[in-house]
Design a protein that fits this description.
Blueprint: H1 16-32, E1 60-64, E2 70-72, E3 75-76, H2 82-93, E4 101-105, H3 111-124, E5 129-131
Parallel strand pairs: 1-4, 4-5
Antiparallel strand pairs: 1-2, 2-3
Amino acid sequence: MKFPRRTLEDPAINLTPLIDVVFLLLIFFMVTTTFTRETRLAVNLPEADAAPAEQQQNQIEVLVNQNGRYSINNELLADNLRDTLRDRLIDVAGGNLNQTILLIADAESSHQAVITAMDAIGQAGFSGFSIATRQPGQDDSNNE
């Protein structure tokens, strides 16, 4: 019995479907990808070389010391809670929410303590506040 002789051909792989799938995946990822920047605040920090602003008579001074303790008009608060600071600000203002708040923070105070003070000022309903700085090279001995 004789078997028919088969000729062996080199096996060929058709790459066309593979290339089509790769292009479809590429198009899919290009269409579904969103190119957004991370949420960031663009902040232009003010320079401290400006001339000192004139001090207002009825402004309220909020001091944040290096330990994160708050004082209002040189009166130390009982605790560091935002609600205590907010309530005391309302009491000192006597209902006049148009008064200027001057926020004075020690350079060594934590960022969180300053942000908490800013938040309390905003929650109290004040229309604005200023942040105190010192001139470059100014001696700190008169601030103590």
